[in-house]
Design a protein that fits this description.
polyphosphate kinase like, Endonuclease, Chain A, ten-stranded mixed beta sheet, alpha/beta
Length: 726
């Protein structure tokens, strides 16, 4: 067995003794759904990590609960649909687990996880909040004056919007909306003999779930949950009856309803709107209910034809139903010592103080690292184009929009200013459909040409094209990104933006928009690698090239950063490369179906995951290519849906300085993280990476990127000439 030295580290080369696999071995793969649950465990670790500021820990707890909601709405719902509707899996799991086996194992792990979630709230976060003067009160803890305040609040604001719904032969069990919080009531006649009756009240979502109580002399901030305001005052709704008991409950429904596209329909919007309306009636997949619920309450819910659930689908919780409500505490004014010091994104050093963004891009390709560098560079790019007399046309893809989005406002202004503006709005961005429809209609009213992409495919790539008439002719300016044109997530997700006016990129961008807005079957791309036609094949070729170099004894290395790694064919190519001696580092934030460290299969593959303040979202690939390294950015994760059912782009970074910045200044820093990084073992477990030796520096990559953004900003020539200070 030979050994090749790669960048100073030894990697075994068993190519001569280990046969290349010809079939996919299920034991080599981790189940997709179970891997996602492991990711949410890593988020919970951050909530339990006492080195994190208290309100940041609470935010992670809320994120865990929100993540779990979407997991049930989409992934568990899809598995249940496979069973009840006898459907085949769109992407059968390479590990071989059937739908029922997955559901049973998910339920086992999810019940354990929910127990730890509430243990964290009751045993760690709630007591620590109390120490710092933040108290979420139970009804029995309230004083007479506080109850008087809540009596008035109930009479003035809550009572008028409540609707009691009786349950009896004349009143069937009401339909409860997806993720709405409800109270199930047991009601008795005031006069004997008492006869139990049942009713349901939806806790109004139009009123904040956390109700702030008046400040007291002790300086504590007190809150009470809205259901605990309503509960003790229910008798006002039932004259002649009394409420003997109540429990809170919530139903999670299937929200991943398939949109049936029809090429003959006149409007995809109407199809999506119909689907959104149907989502409220999606099949139930989970029932959360207070642990106080007795068999009578459960019988009322589970015997109802509206809730056909198995026992494993019922989650009895020892605390507030729906912990996402606690997120409101993270937004409290003050308490700065309970939150990580805020970081203000810096202007890009290449664009800072440049009056004309197009002149800056004409001088050089520009790379912007969000959220360390500001999303304002992207906003400036579109805003200047909207007002620039030389700008003739703007074309842009929009996947996830935001409520207040200056980019979309700039597109509308550009159309009003007479420019040719085209926006591809993806109406099927899961759980963002309604917002995207609103933005599409707003743009249409402003005169923007709005299109919805290719039938049967989601448009997930992030691209913008500005066409300008300049002194030397028509010039095309291109922006490509790993993240969305969304200023909110641009402050929360790590992503990369790339600006260029290179001719090859401009030609490809024009061809891409022609593909999305018209009829084009094939393209000869200069730089773009586009899914669903080329991306999976090209990645396989790039991995195979590294394998060939390794077998020839030449330098071979792969580093790839992404959100999820699922595609079994790409994973198999990575296994083959590992067996040939290619050293492979994978930075996979969430789902990873590859098992690293399997003897003779993946010995040379290391997988790490970073879970920190910002959501790791950038997609980067590095291939050593002998002595001529190549670096690519992409909109796509390595998943079957990205390769085969979405329009995606992977593109190279050619500028040597930008390439070096990505390899050394981003990937190198992430791989050195020994504070927030976890490493995946062959058995599917993750372990925190610690400094290898006592006294070694602790590296938190996201903190390093903040420092680097400040240093880049300070070192920019115009910044230095200005002599200003941050």
């Amino acid at each position: 067995m030979s050994t090749t030295i790669l960048n100073g580290q030894a990697a075994t080369n068993p190519a001569a003794t280990v046969e290349t696999p010809t079939a996919l071995d299920p034991s080599w793969f981790i189940n997709r759904e179970l891997s996602w649950l492991d990711f949410n465990e890593r988020v919970l670790e951050e909530a339990r990590d006492a080195t994190n500021p208290l309100l940041d820990r609470l935010r992670f707890l809320s994120i865990c609960a929100s993540n779990l909601d979407e997991f049930f709405e989409v992934r568990v719902a899809g598995l249940q649909a496979q069973i009840f509707e006898n459907l085949e899996a769109q992407d059968p799991p390479a590990d071989g687990m059937g739908a029922l086996s997955q559901i049973i194992e998910i339920a086992r792990r999810a019940h354990d996880f929910v127990g730890r979630l509430y243990d964290t709230w009751h045993g760690e976060l709630r007591p620590d909040l109390l120490k710092h003067g933040i108290r979420v009160c139970e009804p029995q803890e309230l004083s007479e004056s506080q109850n008087a305040f809540l009596d008035q609040l109930f009479d003035d604001q809550v009572y008028p919007v409540l609707t009691p719904l009786a349950i009896d032969p004349a009143h069937p069990f009401p339909h409860v909306h997806n993720k709405s919080l409800n109270l199930l009531l047991r009601i008795e006649t005031a006069k004997p003999p008492a006869r139990p009756l049942y009713a349901v009240i939806q806790v109004p979502s139009v009123i904040p779930r956390l109700v702030a109580l008046p400040d007291e002399a002790d300086g504590q901030r007190r809150f009470v949950l809205l259901e605990d305001v309503i509960g003790p005052r229910l008798d006002a709704l039932f004259g002649g009856y009394r409420t003997s008991d109540r429990v809170a409950f919530r139903v999670t429904r299937n929200s991943d309803l398939t949109i049936q596209e029809n090429e003959g329909r006149s409007s995809l919007i109407s199809t999506v709107e119909e689907t959104i309306r149907l989502r409220k009636w999606g099949a139930p997949v989970r029932l959360e209910i207070s642990e106080r619920a007795d068999d009578g309450f459960l019988s009322q819910l589970l015997s109802s034809s509206a809730l056909e659930l198995e026992e494993r689908d019922v989650y009895k919780v020892p605390g507030p139903v729906d912990l996402t409500a606690l997120q409101a505490l993270c937004r409290l004014e003050g308490f700065r010592d309970l939150k990580e010091h805020p970081f203000e994104p810096q202007e890009s050093s290449a664009l800072v103080k440049r009056k004309n963004v197009f002149e800056a891009i004409r001088d050089q390709d520009v790379l912007v690292h969000h959220p360390y560098e500001s999303f304002s560079s992207v906003v400036k790019f579109i805003e200047q184009a909207s007002e620039d007399p030389q700008a003739l046309a703007i074309k842009m893809t929009l996947y996830r929009t935001a409520e207040a989005n200056p980019v979309i406002n700039a597109l509308a202004r550009a159309a009003e200013n007479g420019k040719q503006v085209t926006a591809l709005v993806e109406l099927q961005a899961r759980l963002d459909e309604e917002n995207n429809i609103d933005k599409a209609r707003m743009l249409q009213k402003a005169g923007v040409h709005v299109v919805y992409g290719i039938v049967g495919l989601k448009t997930h790539c992030k691209a913008a094209l500005v066409v300008r008439k300049e002194h030397d002719g028509i010039k095309r300016y291109v922006h490509l990104a790993t993240g969305n044109y969304n200023p909110t997530t641009a402050r929360q997700y790590t992503d990369l933006s790339f600006f260029t006016c290179r001719r090859e990129f401009g030609e490809d961008a024009s061809a891409l928009f022609n593909l999305l807005t018209g009829y084009t079957r094939t393209n000869d791309w200069n730089k773009f690698i586009v899914a669903p036609t080329h991306l999976a094949k090209r990645l396989a070729e790039l991995i195979e090239r590294e394998r060939t170099f390794a077998m020839a004894g030449r330098p071979a290395r792969i580093i790839a950063k992404m959100n999820s790694l699922v595609d079994p064919h790409v994973i198999t190519h990575l296994y083959k490369a590992s067996q040939a001696g290619v050293r492979i580092d994978l930075i996979v934030r969430g789902i990873c179906c590859l098992r690293p460290g399997l003897p003779g299969v993946s010995d040379n593959i290391r997988v790490i995951s970073i879970v920190d303040k910002y959501l790791e979202h950038s997609r980067i690939s590095y291939f050593q290519n002998g002595d001529d390294p190549e670096v690519f950015l992409a909109s796509a994760d390595w998943m079957p849906r990205n390769f085969h059912r979405r329009v995606e782009i992977m593109f190279p970074i050619d500028d040597p300085q930008l390439k070096k910045r990505i390899v050394d200044g981003i990937l190198g820093v992430v791989l050195a993280d020994n504070v927030k990084a976890r490493q995946l073992s062959a058995d599917g477990t993750y372990h925190r990476i610690e400094p290898s030796r006592a006294g070694d520096p602790r590296v938190r990559s996201q903190s390093e990127f903040q420092k680097m953004a400040l240093e880049l900003f300070e070192s920019s020539p115009i910044r230095q000439r200005a002599g200003a200070k941050v």
